[in-house]
Specification:
single chain; alpha+beta; Alpha-Beta Plaits; 4 domains; three-stranded antiparallel sheet; 24 helices; 7% strand
Length: 835
């Protein structure tokens, strides 16, 4: 694949620039290299402008962008979001007394101060906050004179033993043990619903700032760690421990972890530079390759800010990939120029020769990369769509920085003469079968039938085994807590504490019972809601359920002096209506003010994929059997309901995304190679890698979810780069009349080392992620490292094996095409002054 029909003879060694025709090559090449100064100046100006823009980029996240907006569950939730405040984006702050129980004046004073601090934080939906100190948390009692009730902590509370005994009694009356009070009475919970925008400023909620406020104004100010004594100021009347969970805190911790993630970017840059330098032993070319890749990152981040996007914990990984891809393409260009200069060609002519040979191959490879990102737009989750846009922008700028700017800069600097001489000596040694030449000769054997059959049989066995293992691949989380973070992270430790100490977990699945106005007063509706709650309680993984019906039973019994005979649903709606109106007046979140939305809330033991699948199946089956136009059972709200909808979208998108990626990559290969046989040769190794990557996910216990979904698509889009570079040279050699073995040997000699270099460089750029504090980044790093290295091996081994059967004769290689690798040098070293 190339930009013209030039052959080897059209690119002779030219030592004197006066012997070179500046009007040779196609129009685009002439436009670039005959105006080199202006190209460099334009890129410098753009870099300066976008650097200024990039410094203002915002790192944040959005709860709404995590939702699959068009899924029926989410549409049901968003339609009734204002009536389901406690079932959306909610923080849960648990205040623990590590040295006693909650019936301690010092503890309750600390709880009051923490409650006030949370109340005043921006973005808090204050009217729906719940804690022992909020007036909406009330107790109710039946007496001889009727109902009595009041706040759990009365206005007369003064910290005395008598008032403390009253608080203890009120907690028991309110029935909040296991929900707002720990089962062991050593902690209590503050439930803090959040708004998507700050009311005072109408600005989106800044999760990073909110997380820092929680740490500074709550945890650091009020918590005294058990292992710290005199170094930290104790609370006025005692000590407490703080446990914080919820989407906002999870995202905040991810954003905080990005500071450490930035260190990995620096490590990746250093490792990439070291690998390239060890290959070239040329400082100037190494610096230029790394510099152009960094310029691409600057352009990408600047354009993201200009277009109004923000970086989030998912898209923040895109600059790493853009840098790694840039280095890989830059290494190809640098390698081609070095080989030509080593033969004595002038540095400007060498840059133009390499541009002719590899620009379209590189362009097609980058387009394949872009397709791998762009296909993520098909996933109906805004945060993934933003990642697709961000990554597509990054790959797009690589066309300018690494396919155009880098060859232009190298046309000025060339490579050092010692590096060129070393490259020439290495090439001569390789032709004699020494050094890497022995590896290339071994790879040549895969063009022979016996070796080709062995390689293909081995690939078939791996594919079959990988496919069987990949059948166990699951959608969603496979572990409790937040799999995005390490198991020993503070967030997951806090989540484990809350799950262990509270009867009601933070994993909430809600089914909305929707009726006409005042429909919840109907006996039939109450019976069906009660049946739904019973059905959900039978599902393994459901701890308990809560609904208006439960409160209604207790309230009706209360109106009849607490008689247990009346602790049931009553057909007489005149009786139940009194209780419903009384419950509405208490500010409940179990029914809306019009009595038309009544959530049935199931508290789950976890949000693992299996648990959510069972609950969704039971709820959908019940809704299908019992739903009517006047009484609808709408899924789903709550954190687990949203997670279930996300899993469904991810499951549907997983295969669909791969189909689109492979269709697009196949089409690009057909356009590039103009041969269906060559396209099959390029695509088959990618299919094997996709199968093995899914098998690896099963082995490592990684589920397919929002954080990991992009990896397989990226592996296909980026993996095809190897085939594009290798086959572009191999096909050109075959079309020039060479045998398959000769053509492949020439392709390996020209691009083989760099294909291996690229694979190692790409893997080195992401393998450091395995030590990231953010677990989903570590998972992505392991998967990408495997895919980059396996794609490299697949290209070097399976391409010649498949070519033996599909491209064995020159006639099968297709139409004549582009320039091949440069011929071996006639002399022993490059001419002086050409570097």
């Amino acid at each position: 694949m190339a930009m013209g029909n030039n052959h080897i003879d059209d690119m002779p060694v030219i030592r004197d620039l006066r012997q070179f025709d500046p009007h040779s090559g196609n129009r685009f090449e002439r436009l670039i290299f005959n105006h080199r100064f202006w190209v460099v100046l334009l890129c410098a100006v753009v870099t300066g402008l976008l650097l200024a823009q990039g410094t203002r980029v915002v790192i944040n996240a959005s709860f709404e962008k995590m939702l699959p907006q068009n899924h029926p569950y989410i549409q049901n939730y968003l339609e009734h979001e204002k009536e389901l405040r406690g079932l959306g984006n909610t923080l849960r702050v648990v205040v623990e007394n590590p040295h006693g129980d909650i019936f301690d004046p010092g503890y309750l004073q600390a709880l009051a101060e923490i409650n006030d601090a949370l109340f005043l934080m921006p973005g808090v939906d204050r009217s729906w906050m719940k804690s022992l100190w909020t007036p909406v948390v009330r107790w109710t009692e039946v007496t001889e004179e009727g109902f009595e009730g009041g706040p759990v902590i009365p206005d007369t509370y003064d910290g005395s033993p008598e008032s403390m005994a009253q608080v203890r009694l009120n907690i028991a009356r309110a029935g909040i043990v296991g929900s707002l009070v720990g089962n062991d009475y050593r902690s209590s919970m503050i439930v803090v619903p959040l708004l998507s925008r700050i009311e005072e400023t109408n600005q989106p909620l800044d999760y990073g700032a909110l997380s820092r406020m929680l740490e500074d104004k709550v945890r650091l100010q009020y918590e005294v760690a058990q292992h710290v004594e005199e170094q930290v100021r104790p609370l006025q009347s005692g000590t407490v421990k703080i446990h914080i969970i919820g989407f906002a805190k999870l995202v905040g911790d991810l954003i905080d972890g990005l500071v450490k993630v930035m260190m990995f970017f620096a490590v990746a840059a250093v490792v990439a530079a070291l690998i390239i330098y060890l290959y070239t032993r040329c400082v100037r070319s190494t610096v230029l390759v790394v510099l152009c890749s960094l310029i691409a990152v600057v352009w990408e981040v600047g354009l993201v800010n200009m277009l109004g996007f923000a970086l989030d914990p998912f898209s923040i990984l895109v600059p790493f990939l853009v840098f790694a891809i840039g280095v890989s393409h830059g290494a190809q260009k640098m390698n081609g120029i070095m080989q030509d200069i080593a033969r004595g060609t002038h540095k400007l002519v060498a840059a133009r020769y390499t541009f002719r040979r590899l620009f379209v191959a590189g362009l097609t490879a980058l387009l394949a990369d872009a397709v791998g990102f762009a296909v993520l737009m098909l996933i109906d989750i805004p945060v993934i769509q933003d990642l697709a846009v961000t990554a597509s922008i990054g790959v797009g700028v690589l066309i300018f920085t690494n396919l155009i700017l880098l060859p232009v800069l190298l046309s000025y600097t060339g490579v050092s003469q010692p590096a060129a001489q070393r490259a020439l000596a290495d090439e001569a040694a390789e032709r004699r079968g020494r050094g890497l030449g022995a590896v290339w000769q071994w790879l040549d054997r895969f063009t022979e039938r016996r070796w080709a059959v062995s390689a293909l049989l081995g690939a078939a066995v791996l594919a079959a085994g990988g496919f069987m293992v990949a059948l166990e691949l699951q959608i969603g989380d496979l572990d409790a807590g937040a799999p995005e973070l390490r198991p020993d992270s503070r967030y997951n430790l806090d989540n484990a504490y809350v799950t262990a100490k509270y009867g009601l977990s933070s994993d909430v699945f809600a089914v909305m019972v929707k009726t006409p106005k005042d429909g919840c007063e109907r006996f039939a509706t109450q019976v069906e809601a009660d049946r739904l709650a019973w059905t959900l309680r039978q599902v393994p993984g459901v701890q308990t359920t809560v609904s208006l019906v439960d409160s209604l039973r207790h309230h009706v019994a209360g109106t009849f002096e607490g008689s247990p005979k009346w602790n049931a649903l009553v057909r007489n709606e005149k009786i139940t209506n009194v209780s419903i109106h009384s419950i509405l007046g208490s500010g409940t979140d179990l029914v809306n003010s019009e009595c038309s939305i009544m959530p049935v809330i199931a508290y789950l033991s976890d949000h693992k994929a299996d648990t959510l699948t069972r609950v969704v199946a039971a709820a959908e089956a019940f809704a299908a059997e019992h739903g009517t136009p006047e009484r609808q059972f709408l899924l789903a709200a709550g954190s687990a309901g949203i997670e279930a909808a996300t899993n469904i979208v991810v499951r549907e998108a997983n295969r669909e995304m791969l189909v689109y990626v492979y269709c697009a990559v196949t089409l690009l290969c057909l356009v590039a190679f103009r041969s269906w046989r060559a396209t099959v040769v390029a695509v088959v190794p990618l299919v094997l890698t996709s199968i093995l990557a899914e098998a690896l996910m099963v082995v490592l216990g990684i589920g397919v979810k929002v954080a990991t979904l992009p990896v397989i698509a990226l592996g296909v889009g980026i993996g095809v780069d190897y085939a594009l570079y290798l086959l572009s040279v191999q096909l050109a050699n075959q079309r020039a009349g060479q045998s398959l073995t000769q053509a492949y040997r020439g392709a390996v000699a020209f691009t083989g080392k760099v294909v291996a270099l690229v694979g190692i460089t790409l893997a080195a750029g992401v393998v450091t992620w395995a030590w990231s504090p953010i677990k989903f980044q570590a998972d992505m790093g392991i998967l990408l490292t495997f895919m980059f290295l396996w794609n490299m091996l697949g290209a070097l081994i399976l391409i010649p094996a498949l070519s033996h059967f599909l491209l064995g004769r020159p006639a099968l290689a297709g139409a004549p095409a582009a320039p091949t690798a440069p011929p071996p040098a006639a002399g022993g070293s490059p001419a002086r002054g050409t570097t």
